[in-house]
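Extended Data, panel c. Modelled sequence:
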Amino acid sequence: MEKRTTHKKKVCLLGDSAVGKTSLIRKYVLDEFSDAYLTTIGTKTSKKKILLEFPENNMKSNVTLMIWDIMGQPSFRNILKEAYFHGANGGIVVCDLTRKETLENISEWVETLTSVVGDIPLVFIGNKHDLDQQAEFGLEDIENVAKKYGDQSCFLTSAKDGRNVDTVFTTIAREMLKPTE
């Protein structure tokens, strides 16, 4: 007999301004993309319900993802970290492949998050893969940073063409459902 479970999980998207956090969420939740840049002020929350299947356990899980789009201005990171990060079950750490400084800053984002919620599942992504001709770094560079935080998944994404967007959110959802040791 198949077992069904229901979960509600909070996932925060972290990273510098203009790395594409809002665009990734819009692509995932609404299947829309816009080149217009709008600065996120504070935080914006989106919701998406998904069904995950675990055939190895004969189980299906209905998961409601509460996706928090966190503003990328570092000056607000420490001031508002408790309010934004409290209760997070997972994080998606985003850098912009065309701006190397966004990769160099992701450790600060992760450390701010983990100072509030402890060690939680993370997925690291290099966004704007559709602009690969302008890329200043690649997947291997992201993986090197991610190794500092354990065995974390890393992907190259494009909010514009949708590349790996669903995979990223499905991966973090699965990671958040894994039992903790």
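The mean pLDDT is 88. This feature is highlighted in the accompanying rendering.
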